[in-house]
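Input set for joint prediction.
Command: fold jointly, output tokens.
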Amino acid sequence: MSTTWRALGEIVVAAVQVIVTGVGGLVLVGLMRKVRARVEGRVGAPILQPLRDVRKLMRKERLRPQFATWIFPLAPVVFVATVSVAAVMAPLVTSRPALGSGADLFVIVYLLLLGSTILALAGLDAGTAFGGMGSSRAVTIGALAEPALLVTILALSISAHSSNFPSIIRATFVDPGVIISPARLFALAALLIVIVAESGRLPVDNPVTHLELTMIHEAMILEYTGPDLALVTLGEAMRLALLLGVFVNLILPWGIASSMSVPALALGVVVLSAKVVAVAVVLGFVEVFLAKVRLFRLPELLAGAFVLALLGVVSGVVAK
Amino acid sequence: MTSGGLLTCGALLGLAAALVGAALPRRKRVLVTAALVIATCVVESVAAIGVLATGHPAQWHSSQLLPMTGATLALTPLGAMFVVLVALVAVPATLYWIGYARHGMSARLTASSYALFVAALLTVPAAASVATFMFLWEIMALTSLALVLTDQSRRAAARSAGVWYGVITHIGAAFILAAFLILAAHSGGQSFAALESHARALAPGARAAVFLLALVGFGSKAGVVPFHVWLPKAHPEAPSPVSALMSGAMVALGVYGIVLFGDVLLGGGPVWWWLIVLALGAVSALFGSLHAANSTDLKRLLAYSTTDNMGLALLALGASGLFVATGHHRLGALSLVAALFILMSHAMFKGALFLAAGSVQVATGRRDLDELGGLLRRMPQTGALFLIGAASICALPPFNGFVGEWLLFQSLLHGVKLGSTPGDIAIPVAVAALALTAGLTIVAFVKAAGVGFLGRPRSPGAEAAIEVPRSMRAGTGLLGAMCVVAGVAPMAILPAAERAVRATLPDVGSTPLAHGVQLQLVGVRAVLAPTVLAASLVVAVLLVAFLRQALTRRRDVRVAEAWGCGRELVTARMQYTATSFAEPVQRVFDDVLRPVRDIDVSHVAESRYVLESMSYRSRVDDRIESALYTPVITTVRRWGQFARRLQPGSVHRYLAYGLVALVITLAVVAVLG
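tokens >
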């Protein structure tokens, strides 16, 4: 294959991954709402409703709060852009993603951190109490989730001797026993808690609440309307899909495309969707039985995740 | 000219700048001194870059300068790294000074001390004998003390900060001197080469004593917990260009001292030395970031975050020593490169942040975040530069702080399974400390940037703020640009850091980093492509912005009032303040911080259930200061009071003392003789 073709192929792969996370993420949100509605005995909105919401929001007028600066319109763009770059790099559909050699788990985490940090700044930009409240709580939770997240990465990287995400996936193919090693299991349990915290789902934050005082993420983005809100909604959905995609590929990487051929990629998309949908249905089902935890009980939950991750590292070191 | 000649030439220029600062009339003083100081920086960094390019140290010796011993300068690649670091902060800070001077920084003493301070900072890393080092180190301490006291006639806080700084820095110097004396006593010479060649033959106990003394001495300069208490006092009170230099460059020389002793003079040590360094680093990073997250004074926040960053540098340094002590030389070299890069990027972003904070203070007359707000609209360039600095210090890609943390994380990650039990325990804990520090730093700087620069002004001073003069913006802008360049193209700095490390640590073997468009660690699968990452971020941002524009039918943006929960008239006082922003973190870390809360409630006379007024005060004190320093100070003061009783002012009493002392001395001599 010539270099031009390879570059073109990489762009196609990158586009596929971004579109899968974008569209898939919105469908995923709809699906989880549907599961919740069904378990609660309601019919619920159609699964494609979030897609329609985004389309509707795109057509609305753009509003800017009176005292806001350029941070306010920039933040949703950067938020979506960071998740997209992370989605390009992560081995979701294929184990050889574009920019894959630099697809360090550490880099992916910090890319997502860039997005959430600029949203937190935007929360303070309008000069209202709600925005400040939301961003203060969001950065606090982010700070507490950070140790669990990085130690989880450490635990995941021990067996592959690298924090490069595609390398970790490929190492799993070489030695499938790694998946049921205690190191990996502890790390995945910690990762799940962190994913729930980072994507603002129950019991950390309630994504459907509309009472200002209890909101975290929703309070932070309260001032956004129209296309800007559409971007924030899209970014959140992509983030959820990306994190769940990362999670399932660490549990069961099989089905991921290892070549750039069209059938392999198509199979990769289908298998990834099936795995993520399965996890999302379980999560959606479990959420029905959970209530939002008090903000000041969250450190205990995240400390639990941290301890799990640390156990992962310790068992990884012991098992050498 | 030889590089040794350049070195001397630079030092002479620095002296000339100090003389000019003392001699010229006020009108021309600042401009000419600043020009000479910048020339000093340029000459010294040319010499340093020469050393880094060739790897040959620059030497210079004069037996005329210092009595009895002579002065010896020898710039090694390691020292050259630090000379470049100092110059990177000093040039922008001096540029900034030109505009800042009108705000009480143009006096003769100040201008002259400033020039001497920069010259001392630039020559300390080149000192190659005990006398030269201590002489330059003292000049650095005294001139910076004079600069901290610039405002002392108007501000009592500056006076108290000066006392704290002066005392701690001199106790630190005494420790350093003690470490040097033990080494020198065993080697029969006082040049570093002599110390180095004899240090290996020293008994392990003596070596450990030297290392620990040096660690305390230099740690106090680096602002490491528990010797950090002077930082949050002295940095805020010093004029802003001086704060930038002290926090960006001077504290880094504290870390230089630890490397100098640990790796160069003593040539490495056992595992437990480095575990102490690692632990000190982790504690400092956590303590500093936690206090930064809870400070409301902008410059105090920056000072605490310096403790945090020096903690990270020590973490990397400790890991480096640990790896070298267990025989993993390449990994040790990588950690040391990470430490140098962290110090380098800290100099850039902390310099930018302190200068921007100084601009805020000039424009609004305030430093308290609870009285600021809305400054990004009023000071667009300073605000944007503060945001760049904040993003860098939060280690967000694509800025320089991110590269440093990536290097540190990678070196820790690959050191986790090396088979030494202390390392296996220490490293996951170090990663956790690094991560929590990163999270708390984000809290601190979202707060500083968001409350200080966004939203609405909280005081008339902030309301009336206007952008500062051009030279101040230029100084800050230079440092902001460095943050971006070093983040996007760290390959510009890393080879130099690597050469410095290879000259410092023996037996590194092959190079720990391969260069090119991307950063690649040799021997392990770890690649970072900062340029590609930055480019893809820019492309993605442009694409998303384009899509938002293309897909909306209505292109115009309407300005509307923010949601006030149905209330009209939302005032600036309803915004979240810095204190309220940090409140959740304060609650979570209540046991560590122990904030002091006072609530005064007064009731109306008729009923206890109806309040007349209520006041609430909350303050976060430094617990290390109150637990460790206050008792010592109280005891010393009590003894001082006791000693005053001996001095009632009566001449007869003093004559009697003289007689008693003479009798006792004679008695002692008679008994012993």
